[in-house]
């Protein structure tokens, strides 16, 4: 995902270019000078419907932003639709609330229980715009399947007959469609099958939208029965609160997503933190010292700098001693971890990760089992130390 600062700079440049009437006939060299002046190392060209083709590190990609789908266009696109969001989990909640705030006609399909109660508390009315899952499928013309990936498989035989020609089936993950050998999910004829996958949790989808920001999302069209699937996918992606959107395929989305979350985004980061902490502790460093040198400095000081302007920017804001060491050691870490990443990609691609996920997350007590493993992490020394360190942040003084 592009850093916020980077994408903000791109947007600013794009806006500046759009506001000049002569931009479409300007030679690229002039545009390149514009880019230099704004210190953005990208070329930009403005195309029909104002989508933008940008140079991402040497490769051209077309991206779509909110300016491509103004509110009137969003509402016009879905003026005859009922958008049924299935599941009020993190993604369902975030996407449904953002669509509702954007003025789109949304209903929710959610089983009764704690999550259903939350939906009621957040203004969804049983029988009016909050229904049992299959009732919502029946009523919806755009069915946004944001149930857990494991439950998508379970409910499919009952859902499929309700997806009549002309409807749209939407996912936020390529999982169910790509691994159809394991899920048996194949949409009926005459149904558009599309995807918008926010690159972050549903919680962030909502929070960034409320802050006037947006999470980046990929989008893909698997089946275009209507002839308008791409246009509608882009509109829906903006409607749920995306920042910018880039095109992918269902396959590429699911491979990169399963790979990324098992890797640097979640799995690898805990593995690296834990290993470094253990070595520091084994060498006599206190928990406070080990945690500060491993996690607190990373999340509070250095990683935000990576987000702002990249790795070299973070390095260059550290001492020359730190920089020398980092420049010497990133390659051994790279070489040691690359075979693990290669093994992981293979395990994603051959369906091993999917099979494990479907099996484990379809057991009746899967939530309790996941919670048990999270508890192990929470109660490990590193994260117990982290809790105390967080309480000591000046901004948390006096809070629990
Ligand atoms: N989380 C992310 O970062 C992320 C990002 C992009 C895309 N996605 C995709 O978005 C989709 C939804 O994910 P999520 O993050 O919202 O959380 P999730 O935990 O995968 O799904 C939660 C929803 O599924 C329902 N559900 C689970 N088991 C059920 C069952 N046996 N019967 C009825 N309903 C059941 C939950 O209802 P209850 O609360 O009642 O159990 C809740 O509404 C998935 O396809 C996921 O891959 C997730």
From TrEMBL:
<dbReference type="InterPro" id="IPR008927">
    <property type="entry name" value="6-PGluconate_DH-like_C_sf"/>
</dbReference>
<keyword id="KW-0460">Magnesium</keyword>
<keyword id="KW-0100">Branched-chain amino acid biosynthesis</keyword>
<dbReference type="InterPro" id="IPR013116">
    <property type="entry name" value="KARI_N"/>
</dbReference>
<comment type="pathway">
    <text>Amino-acid biosynthesis; L-valine biosynthesis; L-valine from pyruvate: step 2/4.</text>
</comment>
<feature type="domain" description="KARI N-terminal Rossmann">
    <location>
        <begin position="54"/>
        <end position="248"/>
    </location>
</feature>
<feature type="binding site">
    <location>
        <position position="261"/>
    </location>
    <ligand>
        <name>Mg(2+) 1</name>
    </ligand>
</feature>
<dbReference type="Pfam" id="PF01450">
    <property type="entry name" value="KARI_C"/>
</dbReference>
<keyword id="KW-0560">Oxidoreductase</keyword>
<dbReference type="InterPro" id="IPR013328">
    <property type="entry name" value="6PGD_dom2"/>
</dbReference>
<comment type="pathway">
    <text>Amino-acid biosynthesis; L-isoleucine biosynthesis; L-isoleucine from 2-oxobutanoate: step 2/4.</text>
</comment>
<dbReference type="InterPro" id="IPR036291">
    <property type="entry name" value="NAD(P)-bd_dom_sf"/>
</dbReference>
<feature type="binding site">
    <location>
        <position position="257"/>
    </location>
    <ligand>
        <name>Mg(2+) 1</name>
    </ligand>
</feature>
<feature type="binding site">
    <location>
        <position position="257"/>
    </location>
    <ligand>
        <name>Mg(2+) 2</name>
    </ligand>
</feature>
<dbReference type="InterPro" id="IPR013023">
    <property type="entry name" value="KARI"/>
</dbReference>
<protein>
    <recommendedName>
        <fullName>Acetohydroxy-acid reductoisomerase</fullName>
    </recommendedName>
</protein>
<feature type="binding site">
    <location>
        <position position="293"/>
    </location>
    <ligand>
        <name>Mg(2+) 2</name>
    </ligand>
</feature>
<comment type="similarity">
    <text>Belongs to the ketol-acid reductoisomerase family.</text>
</comment>
<dbReference type="Pfam" id="PF07991">
    <property type="entry name" value="KARI_N"/>
</dbReference>
<dbReference type="InterPro" id="IPR000506">
    <property type="entry name" value="KARI_C"/>
</dbReference>
<feature type="binding site">
    <location>
        <position position="319"/>
    </location>
    <ligand>
        <name>substrate</name>
    </ligand>
</feature>
<keyword id="KW-0028">Amino-acid biosynthesis</keyword>
<keyword id="KW-0479">Metal-binding</keyword>
<feature type="binding site">
    <location>
        <position position="297"/>
    </location>
    <ligand>
        <name>Mg(2+) 2</name>
    </ligand>
</feature>
<feature type="domain" description="KARI C-terminal knotted">
    <location>
        <begin position="249"/>
        <end position="396"/>
    </location>
</feature>
